[in-house]
Specification:
By secondary structure, this protein is α+β, with helices and mostly antiparallel strands. The chain folds into two domains: about 5-180, Hypothetical protein af1432, CATH 1.10.3210; about 185-270, no CATH class. It has helices at about 5-20, 25-35, 35-50, 60-80, 85-90, 95-105, 120-140, 145-160, 170-180, 190-195, 200-210, 235-245, and strands at about 210-215, 225-230, 255-260, 265-270. A four-stranded mixed β-sheet has the order 1-2-3-4. Helix 2 packs parallel to helix 6, helix 7 packs antiparallel against helix 8 and helix 8 (about 145-160) packs across helix 9 (about 170-180). It is globular, with a radius of gyration of 18 Å.
């Protein structure tokens, strides 16, 4: 059964996608968000992440949050006149870029169901048959579109950790969208289950100090990311996680990044 948080995110994703491209976008969102196999993978990924590994949320709420972040960012880029890689290469439409990003976001951490190490690669091979199934339902016999969207989604999935070189704008947006999900809700369950101190705890404590991440139109660049935190320990997340992902992203040049402690004077990174 979906949680109230998941239902809320589903509604926001569907509304955001529908506003950007009313064609196949909403159909893709409905298919993916309601897919039982995707959700089962998301749920088990979260179980492995939290209960077995003592890590933070890598389940249906996280992957939906990343999807929403990505859709918002891609919309801001479009509003600023920035074309996606599919558009620039004249092989696809904005709608297809959006669908690839959406599907990649909803599947990018399913490899956590196998384990943490190389989970992005596990996610990619687990995603392949699901992408084939959903894209066949969306595009029927149009094999060219199915291959193009699947390949783009797989680039985003396999590159979301920032340790592999990515080339498309769509994959770069996913990389940053993933890094932006670091508010304290992600660390709530691991914090509650915490026992004796262990390696990696700084991620949970720093994430627990982050109150909100805002994605807004920028003043000098298309996207402004604001990280609001209750204490300076949250700067660890910004500097060690988010900043690294932005630096590795093809969308880096379109991002303004600010950190605010207790609504104080913003500290600008980018």
């Amino acid at each position: 059964m979906r949680s109230p948080k998941e239902i809320s995110l589903d509604n926001k994703i569907f509304e955001a996608v529908s506003a950007l491209c009313p064609g196949k976008g909403p159909e893709a969102a409905k298919l993916a968000l309601g897919d039982e196999e995707i959700r089962a993978l998301q749920e088990y990924s979260n179980t492995v992440s939290i209960k077995r590994l003592g890590y933070n949320d890598h389940g249906p709420v996280h992957m939906r949050t990343v999807a929403l972040n990505g859709v918002i960012m891609l919309g801001l880029l479009r509003n600023a006149g920035i074309r996606t890689s599919l558009e620039t290469e004249e092989c696809g439409l904005f709608e297809e870029s959006l669908i690839a990003l959406l599907l990649a976001a909803l599947l990018h951490d399913t490899g956590m169901s196998v384990g943490r190490q190389d989970h992005e690669i596990h996610s990619a091979y687990l995603a392949c048959p699901i992408l084939d199934r959903l894209l066949k339902e969306l595009y029927g016999g149009d094999i060219q579109k199915r291959i193009m969207i699947r390949s783009l989604a797989l680039e985003g999935i396999s590159g979301h950790m920032g340790n592999r070189v990515i080339h498309s704008l769509e994959a770069g947006v996913l990389l940053i969208a993933d890094g932006c999900d670091m508010a304290k809700g992600r660390a709530r369950i691991p914090m509650a289950l915490a026992g004796s101190p262990k390696v990696g705890d700084i991620h949970k404590y720093s994430a627990n100090s982050i109150e909100e991440v805002r994605i807004l139109p920028g003043a000098e660049r298309p996207i402004r990311v604001e990280v609001l935190m209750s204490s300076e320990v949250g700067l660890f997340q910004v500097e060690e996680v988010l900043l690294g992902k932005i630096s590795a992203s093809t969308a880096k040049g379109y991002i303004e990044l600010y950190a605010l402690v207790n609504e104080g004077e913003p500290k600008r990174y980018l």
